Amino acid sequence: MDQEKTPVRLKGVGKNLCIIVDPMESTEHLIQEITRLLSELSEQVIDSAVTIDVGEGHDDLFAALGSYIREAFGVSSIARPDKRIKIAKRSILPEERMRIRDMEQSWHHYSTDVLMLAGRVRSGQRVAAERHLIIMGDVNPGAEVMAGGDVVILGSLMGTAIAGQPDNEENIVFALDFRPTQIQIGSFVAAGLPSSSEKIAEFAHVENGTIVVDNYLDVNPFGRLPWPQVR
User: Do residues 121 and 104 touch, judged by C-beta distance below 8 A?
Assistant: First the structure.
């Protein structure tokens, strides 16, 4: 379930956790959602410092949720957000506020689910990853590599690479030596892609409804991002 569409959202993990709730929801519903989310974190929550953001006022709601979380999950402390921080953030320009939000919720709070393998994937072999896939080696003709996210080959790609499965067209296939037999990104498929006579770092991506291959260093697709973002 998408946290953005629920009355309870979590920021951070482990020993520093902020729980943001919709004070318009019933206390019982909020407790159910908090229980569901914190139960997924298992022992990471024990002895953590928890901040509960219920908005301005709502003292009774804060007290009820804080008492329940402390007793049910064994946290070390319960607090409300520092009002001084909120006031300071309101005076920041929108772009900077977005950067702060992204950095608070972004990569350093994530446990990655990247499958990284070293070695050659040989003809007849098939490697699949639920999220992103990194191969530190070559993918031979007749081999197939597949991922729910990006496919990154730190070597020669000469077999089949399938990214963004089942239906994500935003992912890429990257290789230091890009000579694939076939590429698929989401539902888009391309075969017989032109390859350079030299070993060049290239990547395939979907553009205007077709798979396009570009020089990675020339295009620098992620160089325009102002700060690191989770893929």
Answer: no
User: Are residues 11 and 64 located together in one domain of the fold?
Assistant: yes
Token pair 């319960």 in the structure block, residue: 78
- Reported for 207-212, long-range contacts at CB under 8 A and 24+ positions apart, including other chains, are 211/183, 211/185
Range of the domain at 177: 115-219
CA dist 10 and 162 (Å) reads 33
Q: How far apart are CA 14 and CA 69, in angstroms?
A: 14
Task: Give the domain CATH number at 15.
Answer: 3.30.750
Over residues 77-117, the pLDDT tens digits come to 888 876 554 444 444 455 555 555 555 554 444 556 789 99
Q: Are residues 68 and 159 in the same domain?
A: no
Residue finishing a domain among 27, 56, 80:
80
HEC sequence for 12-49: CCCCEEEEEECCCCCHHHHHHHHHHHHHHHHHHHCCCE
For residue range 18-54, what is the model confidence (pLDDT) as tens digits? 888 888 889 998 998 888 888 877 666 777 788 888 8
Residue 229: exposure state from Cβ atoms within 10 A (0-12, 13-18, ≥19):
exposed
Q: In terms of domains, do 73 and 121 share one?
A: no
Residue 231 lies in a domain: no
